[in-house]
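pls design
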């Protein structure tokens, strides 16, 4: 095998720099966006209380356990233009909880059709 020509060495070095730059851009932590993805706002479907759950150490299991009662009643929530509601992709989780009788329908404060609810307070407590 012949030795590499100078232009081949330059091309190889440029490829290494390009791969390194792409990896740095893809895997570097961004400021505000990365902190948003490391926590979830959860609602207790029986009380309407809001909790912030940090996902830095472990992912959330939906429904997550309420730190006060130990019951798995916490589902992700979002604040929209019309107020608070269950995150749309988790609305089926609430319906499954009601159908399987994991939570009695008369205890649910979230509307299973729209996912809307009114929290008893605007305070968001830590869940973990």
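designed seq:
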């Amino acid at each position: 095998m012949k030795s590499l020509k100078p232009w081949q060495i330059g091309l190889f070095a440029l490829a290494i720099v390009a791969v390194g730059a792409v990896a740095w851009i893809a895997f570097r932590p961004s400021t505000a966006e990365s902190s948003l993805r490391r926590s979830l706002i959860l609602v207790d479907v029986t009380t309407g209380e809001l909790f912030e759950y940090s996902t830095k150490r472990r992912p959330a299991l939906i429904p997550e356990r309420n730190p006060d009662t130990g019951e798995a009643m916490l589902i992700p929530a979002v604040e929209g233009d019309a107020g608070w509601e269950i995150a749309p992709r988790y609305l089926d989780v609430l319906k499954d909880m009601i159908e399987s009788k994991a939570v009695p329908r008369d205890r649910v404060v979230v509307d299973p059709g729209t996912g809307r609810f009114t929290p008893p307070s605007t305070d968001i407590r830590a869940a973990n």
